[in-house]
Amino acid sequence: MTAGATSMKSKVTFLETVYPPISNQEAVWLQNDSEVEALLRQSDFYMIGGRAEAKYLNLVIDPDACVITFDFAIGDNFRDPVEIRIRDLPAVEELEAESFWIETGDKMIRVWDGPIGEPGSSVLEWFTTEKLIWDRSRGRAGIGRFYRYREAATYDLLYVGIAKVGDSFDRLISNGHKARMEILGNEPQRYPGARVTDEIYLFLFNVQPLIMTTFELEHDFENEDLSGAYDQKRIVADAEKAFVSLLKPEYNVVRFASYPKGADGLYGSDFVRYGYAICEAASFNTAHGRIRGSRDATTGFITNDADSIFVEGNTVKLLVSGVDFSAEPPPAGANAAPQDKQKEDNQGGV
Q: For the chain, what are the domain ranges?
C-alpha cells in the first residue's frame, strides 16, 4: 500500500467459455442458430486454437444396459475409453421414457426421444468431441471414465482477440475475421486426411473479474468504495494484451511489447495487482510458452492446477502451477466424473 493510502485494490479475472469449443466447420453450421448465437454473444474475448481432430472409435451400443462405449481418439497416439450411460444423462433421466433412439457418427453422438429426424422427435442430449470434453470437465452425469480429458483438451494457441465494441459473435463469426481466414489458409494439416477447417477451434470466453479491496481502519468510506463498479471493456483489453505479450500467438501481428503499459488497459488504474487465469480444463501452447487452465468438475471453481498471469507495477509474470506455487494433488477419485468411481466399484466397470 502506497504512503498515505488507506485502501488497496487487486483483481484476478477468470476466463470461462460461454459455450463448448467449436471447430471452424461447426461455427459455419451454427452461426444461424438463434439459441447458440444468444450464448456466444455473452463473450467479448476469444481464442483460436489448433489440434488434430478427435474421433470416436470402436463404438458399441449395449441396448440392454443403455450404455455406449467407445475410444476417444486424437491422431495415432491418444486413446482413452469412454462410456455414456444413457439413462443417467440429465435430459433422459428427466423424461423417464422407456425407449430412446441413438444416432452415432465418428464425431457426434445424439440421443433422441423419437425416431431420428422424424417430425415430432427431439434431440435430448448430444456430444460433439469438444462438447464431450467440456461436459466431462463439468462433471456431467452419465459420462463415465474418460480420465484423460484434460490431456485431450490441449491446443496450439494461434490467435487471441477481443471485441472492443459489441461481442465475440459479431467480431469472430458473423463478420469476416482476417486472422481466422489467414489461419484457414496457412495452417497445415495436423493429421493426414483431415480438413484444416475441422482442426481449428474457436473458444469464446466470458471475462469475470473478482475484485478485492483492503481498507485501513482509518479509511474514510465513500459511496464508490462499495459500488463494485468496473469497466468491463478495459479489463478485456488488458487481458488480450497480457496473453498476447507473454505467449505471442503466431497470428497476432501486434504483440504489445510495452505491456503492461497501454492506453486502454489497466496500467495506471487503481489496481495495485491484477491477474488472469483460465477456468477451463484446457491447455494452450505456443512456441513461446504454455498456459494451462483448470476446473473442478464438482464445484466449477478454478483449482491450483491452473497457471496464471499477474501484473504488479511494470512487472508481468506467468506463474506456473507446480513451479511457482503448489499444485496440490486432487483427492482420491477426483479425476472421475461424479458417481463414476462408485458405479465402477458396484458394477465392476463396463
A: 7-49+153-319, 54-151
